Amino acid sequence: MTETPPPIWLTVGELAARTGVAASALRFYEDRGLIGARRTDSGHRRYPRSMARRVAFILFAQRIGLSLEEIRAELQKLPVGRAPSGEEWAQLSATWSDRLDQRVAELQRLKRGLTDCIGCGCLSLERCAILNPSDQARALGAGPRYWLGDSPPSD
Amino acid sequence: MTETPPPIWLTVGELAARTGVAASALRFYEDRGLIGARRTDSGHRRYPRSMARRVAFILFAQRIGLSLEEIRAELQKLPVGRAPSGEEWAQLSATWSDRLDQRVAELQRLKRGLTDCIGCGCLSLERCAILNPSDQARALGAGPRYWLGDSPPSD
DNA sequence: CTAAGACTTCAACCACACTTGAAGTCAAGA
DNA sequence: TCTTGACTTCAAGTGTGGTTGAAGTCTTAG
Questions:
Q1: Whose CA, among A92, B12, B70, B129, lies 20 to 30 Å from A39?
Q2: Cα B76 from Cα B85, distance rounded (Å)
Q3: How far is A27 from A45, CA to CA, in rounded Å?
Q4: Could you tell me the strand order of the sheet in which A45-48 lies?
């Protein structure tokens, strides 16, 4: 029985290895309040194994298009002091479905524009429903700040 | 007949007004080689009206998820010295359809993961097909640089 | 003619999501 | 014990896509 049992508390390097997220990123997430860690007497971080799931959730939420600040706000809804249940994780992301639907709709609108719009001259702007959607589509690329339909800081 | 005829050459402010893109952004695009301009004797920019379409194309391409550098490369395929035809614009974007399909597929995968994956523990990473897609999905949010499946600079 | 507003360049700044490096401490195997 | 590698903090740097400001020039309406 010389097999090493799976460690209960993970170092930052171990958590990095398990999640694929760089240790520097994990420290950064802590700095931004997305994750936390116990500390050893000497100051080294120690994570419970459930933390890997929290990190995975962060990555998932990023893919959805949330900023770290938004993710932080979401994570605050979770219980403190114990690992969240599967259901609690699922509840957290329940509202994202609409967001994804909107994104898919925009992409499909863009795809139609590929044939309908670019060639025909609709690209004359101003009333193009493809280039001028109502949603913000933040995570779909930065784009110029003041696009048609977005209001500049104080117009 | 005191009506002002539509100007043949646009100033940067006029092009900004027509496209909804800030003048500073237009200068920035010029700096990056995406657009060009004639100059008056005094150095002021003058754009042909067809430039509005080029700018619209840039915005469109950004929505698709292309970086400015990628867009620059695309635009280099266009003829110089004359305004491109509608067909030429359409050809340029013909290959984007696949890209959009992939993005839509990823979003739908993410949406399924909302119910299938987050709650069930699949979020344990490493083999999660949702968090570990083969494409890069660059425009879907930055995310940590070294995600599972991406190779660090030299592993 | 003159004043306002639009234009010019250039450098600096912004947000986001990290990475990198310096300087030092801690932990674990030989 | 020693040495190596992993850890610590903090500051500074990176890339993308711009914006903002300073200092000066040009254009145009009155």
A1: A92
A2: 15
A3: 9
A4: A9-10, A45-48, A38-39
pLDDT tens string B25-39:
999 999 999 999 999
Residues on chain B touching A19 (C-beta within 8 angstroms) = 125
Burial of B117 (0-12, 13-18, 19+ CB in 10 A): buried
**From the list B56, B110, B145, which residue is nearest A100 (CB)?**
B110
Q: Do B59 and A128 touch (CB under 8 A)?
A: no
Comparing CA positions, the residue from B108, B89, B103 lying closest to residue A114 is: B89
Please classify residue B22 by burial: count the beta carbons closer than 10 Å to its beta carbon, then call 0-12 exposed, 13-18 middle and 19+ buried.
middle
Q: Write the burial class of residue B72 (CB in 10 Å: 0-12 exposed, 13-18 middle, 19+ buried).
A: middle
Long-range Cβ contact pairs of B121-125 (< 8 A, separation 24 or more):
B121/A53, B121/A86, B123/A53, B123/A56, B123/A57, B123/A60, B123/A89, B124/A52, B124/A53, B124/A56, B125/A18, B125/A19, B125/A20, B125/A52, B125/A56
Distance of C1' in D23 from CA in B32, Å: 24
Name every chain A residue with its beta carbon within 8 A of the beta carbon of B57: 118, 123
pTM, two decimals, is: 0.79
Find chain A residues with C-beta within 8 A of B141's C-beta: 62-66, 139
The 10s digit of each residue's pLDDT in A83-101 is: 888 888 888 888 888 888 8
The pair of structure tokens assigned to A71 is 């993710």
Mutate to test the interface with B, among A10, A95, A110, A117 (most CBs of B within 10 A): A110
